[in-house]
Every structure is written in structure tokens, then in C-alpha cells.
Amino acid sequence: MTSIAGRVARQQDRAEGIGTKETAVKFAGQDYETLLEQRLSSGRLFEDDCFPAESKSLGYNELGPYSSKTKGIVWKRPTELCSDPKFIDDGATRTDICQGALGDCWLLAAIASLTLDQQILARVVPPGQSFTENYAGIFHFQFWQYGVWVDVVIDDRLPTRDGKLLFVHSAEGSEFWSALLEKAYSKVNGSYEALSGGNTIEGFEDFTGGIAEIYTLNKAPRLLFQIIQKALSKGSLMGCSIDITSSNESEAVTALKLVKGHAYSVTGAEEVTARGRPVQLVRIRNPWGEVEWTGPWSDGSREWTYISADEKSRLNNVAEDGEFWMSYLDFTNNFSKLEICNLTPDTLESDGVGRWNNYQFEGLWRVGSTAGGCRNNAATFPSNPQYVVRLEHVDDDHLDGKAGCTFLVGLMQKGGRQQKRLNRDMETIGFAIYKVPDEYKGSSNVHLGPDVLLRQNHVAMSTFINTREVCQRFRLPPGEYAIIPSTFPAHKNGSFVLRVFSEKEADTSPLAAKIHAEIKEEEVSEKNMDPQFKRIFKQIAGSDMEVSVFELADILNNIVSKRSDIKTDGFSLETSRLIVSLLDKDENGTLGLKEFHLLWNKLQKYLEIFKSHDTDGSGTMSTHEMREAATKAGFQVNNAVLQAIVNRYADAQYAIDFDNFVGCLIKLEMLFKMFKTLERDNSGKIELNLQQWMCLAIY
Fold first, then answer.
1. Least enclosed by CB within 10 Å: which of 103, 142, 175, 277?
2. Catalytic residue among 140, 169, 262, 597
3. What distances in angstroms separate CA 43 from CA 32, 35, 250, 599, 617, one per listed residue?
4. Which fold has domain 357-512?
């Protein structure tokens, strides 16, 4: 219950703008300004209890408390390591980032890219921090984490051995922003060891909030050069690298002076005319400088004599900063992988670049309700969360000669690095895209069922892979499309963020059934009542002609015990109390003849629905059938309510027996009626004070 309340609170925070770059979430509830002021007032240096200078912050296996790799480690502040420590000295540069004894080179490559863009760097590394002015042993950094920006506070105690930093450090040894940034990122992910192994693009995303695409260059799509040009025009960050087959190849230099296993940046893409023919060129930057490509179109090569002076001047081919040009063909033949991080509009401050339109949603897969798995799991696939994107405006340029709408879809699962400590792998995730039928167009208050999703083929589909994020680019005709994110197998719990980046503005929203109830109040007259029913009621009610909560439980259990076609653990007093609370019109705490007749009719209706959804004749109903069963009973619920129903009424095998089915429907009717009684002007909201809330919740 408290976890659901926490989720609701987070949703309210998002609605109020908390989690944006302007109002970041305070990680672990720690407020930097408050803690800094407290430490300055007390004169004591900050010590972070949430990420202490202890072995558990280092790791759990190779850097665990009993590992030989953690012997001799001492946590020290920069003021204990050198006489004049600097946070950032004369600007953040690539020489501030030297790898230590941690396999997080992917992260360091992303940090190095930060030094090329001071605006993005200032977002991640808030300015004004130092070891002199207002120094209290406390620093803070900001990261994008699964859809929100978080502000992470740390103390400056760093792991050392023999008086030297164990992990990332600056070449001079006196500059500490990169080491402290690595510590803050370790805190977010649970430990230093959690950062071991990864992909540079993950760091790009967490430093910018952007969405990442990865292209294997020996399988490059036909229009990749145009995609690169368009990405550059939108301010995207791009990196490329050459794969290595063993650790011995790391940093090995090829005959044409390219470094294997090394992260390069792509900074330009132009088309020139050489000898009367068009040539596509790509500009590459080696962040470490010095070593540059020596093949065709390299600095000073003869190819530059074949183009006009104007084009040569425009491309400014001669440079001594590690930046060089090469043909697009040589680029795809020599490099293995291209990574594009497309930035959100709020990251780009320049007016000279185009901007993506971006949309994001948080969702859950829960066993028994929304963990439907991929299309191979026909019985459960439609139960997955669903989202609609309405594409109305075609791209300005038709790269393939056809009018279409370009958009990116990224599906990211949460908490992968935190799961490492538990030795759990990430789930295999992906998504399918379906065309929305005409009868559902323009509506978001629906949930597409098997009659829609199982009777048509998808129009697009991602790969399914066990990685943090699956992202793919699509170009579809204008129309409405449903995106169905899922794990590959069914029945896997998980939390995710779904993001859509579109070239043109698009209407994007969850597809969620509107919570609604059609409750028909039945009129009961003793005059028209079956005499046999009256006689039976008199027998079971006794002389007072009233059925108490305790008598009702006995009556219901006596009835269901005689049926072999339904399974039940028996009606509880709690269910009986719910029934009496709902039907007790005169508020005497019992059911009279008319009230019992209403109950009897409800039970007959609910039994019929229950039996029709017991497809395997087991005497129980699968929780995946609960949405449709509730609809037949007059209650339309969305995913959030369905998950609450499963948590409350399902057994360990995610089945619902008859007594729980009845209890659920009675509770739904009661909640709807209570809400409508308290609602004002059809606002969709009610307001209660603490006493009112407590009384209603207990009742």
C-alpha cells in the first residue's frame, strides 16, 4: 500500500515539474544547500551516511569486502592527498580523465565528451564548487535517471591505495571534479563495481537526457549519411569506435592511424564535388588529439586538390587538434559502430539547431496483470501497457522520395545496474507498433484487446535484447499507431520508461481505459418476489427476518460448498461485511428480505460471468481475464486499478477463485458509489481531511 502511495506521490511531483532540469529530484532526499549550510555552521566536514566510506560502497563481488582487490584501500579527502586541490583548474579538459582500477572506460569516454560542450558540462557539474570558498567536504552533481533529473550529494572521501586515487583521476593529480563525478554516479547505481562494463551511449543519455541510437556500420542503412547530417543539424552528440576482439587490441593503432577500442566523436558530414562527382565526407575527432587518420581526405592529402577553393575553405580541412575528414565509404569500412545521442529541446540552448519533439511515459509490467510478453504469447500479449502516437505532419525532406513521418522510440528498463548486486540479468525487452483501427482513432480512453492486436500484423517492430534500452528509428505514413512495449517472455516484472522523439509535433499519450462503472440499481418488490425465495429466506434468517454479517458468511459458504464447478477458500467475514455495507439500505448492519434478494441476483450474475471466464474448467479465473470479466460486470478499469486488484485478490498462481471474485466486484461497486457521493460537479476529484480519509479507509 505504501509503495502505491509513493508511486502516486511521484506522479504528483512530475505533474508539478519536479524532476526537470530546473527542479531536480533530491536523490535519497538529500538537499545540497541545506547540508552545506549545516556543515559550514558546525565547522565539521560532511560525511555521507547514504554512501559511506565503507566497503559496501565499493562493491559486492570483485570489489566486495573479502576481495583481495579491496585490501589496503583507505578513503581520503583531496585535501589529504595534495596541498592545493582544485575542483576544476582552468576548465575541464580530457586530461582530467584518466582511468583507474575500474572497468568503466565507457563512462570515462562519455565524461570526456562532456568537456567538448561546456553548456552540457555545467548541467551535470554545477558551477561554483571548490576546495576553498565555502568548502565543507560536500559536492553535488546532476544526472538524468529514467525520465527525471536527480541532484546527487556526496562527500569528498575517495578510495585510495598508497596515497593515490584508486579509480578515475586527473593527469596532474590535483584536479578532482572527474573523481567526484564518478563517485556520485556510483552512488546513483549502488556502488563503484556496478559501473564495471557498459556502453558509452548510456553515459551520454544520463548526462543529457537524450535518446540513443546505435548503428552497426557493416550493416548501415542506405540513408545513414543523411541521418548523420540531420542529427548534426539537431545538435546530436555522436560517437564512433572500432571493435576489438581481445583486450590486447585495446588502443592498438591501425596502419592508417586509427585507434581500436577508442571513442571518437563525429562532428561533421558534408558532400563535396571532386573531379565532377559528388563525394560524401565525415569529420571525426579524436578526443585525445595527436593520432589522426592518414588515409584519403586526411589533412594535407592530395584529394583536397580536387575540390574548389571555396569548398576547401568551407570545410577548413587542415587542423592540428585531432580532427580529420574521411570519406563516408572509408568511415563505414574502418569503423564498427556509430552512436547517436539525440538531445531534448531543453538541452539545446542554441537557436541555430533544429529540435526534436519529445514525449516520455513511465510504465510497469506486473505478473498477473500487465506482464504480457511479446506477440508469441497470444493469450497475454494484449494485456501489456499501450501507448498511441498520432502522426499528422510529414517530414520537410523526403529522403527516400516518399512522404513520411520520422520518429524514434526508446524503451528503457529501470534499475539494471542495481540488480547486479543480486546477480540478476536485465530482461529481454522490445516493442511492436500496430495501426490503430478506424473505430478507435482519436480516442485515448481505450485498451486495445485481442480482437484488435491478434487480428492484424504489426507495421513495425524493434529487436528484442537484454540491454538497458532498445531504441529504433521509424518512418511511417501519417496515421495513428499503438506502441506495445513488452518483455520477450510473459510473466516478468519490470519498470520502464518509454520515450518518443518525433521530427514534427505528434500527439502521444497512454492508451488507458477510462475508469467507469455502469451500476444499475435494481428495484425489488416483495409483491413480485418468488414465494419459494421468501420461504427459504425466512428459514435462514430466523424470526427477526434479518441476516447478520456472521449468518451471511455461513449461508454463502454453505451454498458454494455444494458446488464442484467452482473453487473457493470460503467467504470471509471481511467479504460479508463489505456485502452488508453495500446493500444495507436502512443501516442496521444486517440484510432484510429485499436486500438479500438484491444480493442473490448479484451472485447469480457474477457466477455466470465467472464461469464464462474459467476457460480451462479449473474452477478459478486467470487474472489476465479479470479486465474483461470486470467489464461484463459493469466496471471498466485501467492498468493501475487492475494491478491493485491482482495484488489484493489473486493467489500465488495468479488465479482468482469465486469468493475473491465476488469480493472484488462488491468492493469496486462500493468504491465507485463512495466516490460519486463525495465528488462535486463531476470534477473527477474528491477532497477529504485526515479523519474522513481514515474512517472511509477503515470502513
1. 277
2. 262
3. 16, 12, 47, 70, 72
4. Jelly Rolls (2.60.120)
